[in-house]
Amino acid sequence: MTQISILGCGWLGLPLARKLIQYGCAVKGSTTSVDKLTLLQRSDIIPYKIAISSKEIDGPISALLDNSDVLIIDIPPKLRGVEKDDFVSKIQVLIPNIEKSSVSKVIFVSSTSVYGDVDHQVTEDSVHEPATESGRQLLASEFLLKDNANFQTTVVRFGGLIGEDRHPIHFLAGRKNIENPDAPINLIHLEDCIGIISSIIEQDCWDETFNAVTPFHPSRKEYYSQKALEMNLDLPEFDVDSISSGKTISSDKVQNVLKYEFKINPL
After folding, report:
1. Residue 256 burial (CB < 10 Å; 0-12/13-18/19+)?
2. Can you tell me the distance from the alpha carbon of 153 to that of 144, in angstroms, rounded to the nearest whole number?
3. pTM of the predicted model, to two decimals?
4. Cα separation of 258 and 221, whole Å?
5. Are 163 and 11 in contact (CB under 8 A)?
6. At what angle do helices 87-99 and 133-146 cross, to 10 degrees?
7. Which of 79, 91, 84 is nearest to 8 (CA)?
8. Does the pLDDT at position 82 exceed 70?
9. Distance CA 116, CA 119 (A)
10. How far apart are CA 175 and CA 193, in angstroms?
11. % of the chain surpassing 70 pLDDT
């Protein structure tokens, strides 16, 4: 039985853990909340309370990693608001613990924000031009993990995350003068996030980088107006006179290398 450790059982990590258990894996998972430990345990996840700061790890990180071959790192950068983290330092604190453990393969959950605000199609080989602090720190963390010879790292760069309880239309509904009406969307459903990570593990696909975005890219105006109507929300109003720009994320590599077929069309 394959044993997998998931650092961060949140919006993606928890349902991912449940799916891996259905596939016959044994899963250890971490949370920063005492209240969530029982939820993990009820899902047959071996739970650990672990919090990582830029200086230290609070919690039994060795126990989380012990006897696992695969580690999935799914912790958010938290670089917005007043209390900002130094995410790169967190990864630097974590790495020696991975090196000392049984883990030989790592999946790092990253973001297409590493490409920045470019105005063309991007692939995994495109130049990195992160325009946000989150994008810059995620990219630096990718390099730290991939350059480490003690384990193999595959990076998954997700686009905008959507699911039954998460959709950007709830933020945009009723807003006015929204910019970039003709920019393409780059979204991916939770079910496909889980499917792609599961495929990487199943196919033993390491030392790779994958963009993970559903290959449908209507304009922001078209897509969010349609979603507002479907959900009976106030229509967003776009500034149609503004100049639109935005990247289109290619997921060709996921489809060609992993032979992955996307399950959920966000349209």
Report:
1. exposed
2. 10
3. 0.95
4. 32
5. yes
6. 20
7. 91
8. no
9. 9
10. 29
11. 97
